[in-house]
Design a protein that fits this description.
The chain has 133 residues and is mainly alpha-helical. The protein has a two-stranded antiparallel ribbon. A hairpin with a 2-residue loop joins β1 and β2.
Length: 133
Amino acid sequence: MLERTSDLIARKTGVSGAIFGATALAAVTSLPEVATGMAAIRLGDCELAISDIFGGNGFLPTLFLVASLLSGRAVLATMPPSTLYLTALGILLTSIYSIGFIVRPRRQRFRMGIDSLLVLSLYCLGVLGLATM
C-alpha cells in the first residue's frame, strides 16, 4: 500500500518515483529512527541514537536476500540503474560517517563536523544527479 500511495503521489506531483523514494519516502520511513534518536539524545545516550541509525543501515541490505529468496531470482541483477545509483550513494554516505567515527574530526561549521557537511553535500548532489538520470 505504501508503494502504491508513493507512486500515486509522485505521479500527481510530477516527480520521478526514484527521486520521490530517495527524498520524501525515505524521510517518512525514517521517522521512527528520528524519534528514537531525538529521545536518546535528550536522555544523553548518543550511543543509542547512533546504534539505531547505523543498525538499520546495517540490517536493511539483508532484505535483498529475503527478496531474492521470496521471488526465486536475484533481485540485485534486476534493479534499475536509479536503484543501483541510490544503493551506491547510501554505501558512500555510510562509509564517510564510518571514517568520521575513526578519524573524529574536531573542527565544526554550522555545528556539524566535516563528515556531516560532506554527507549533506553529497546527498544533495546525489539527488540532483538522480534527477538527470
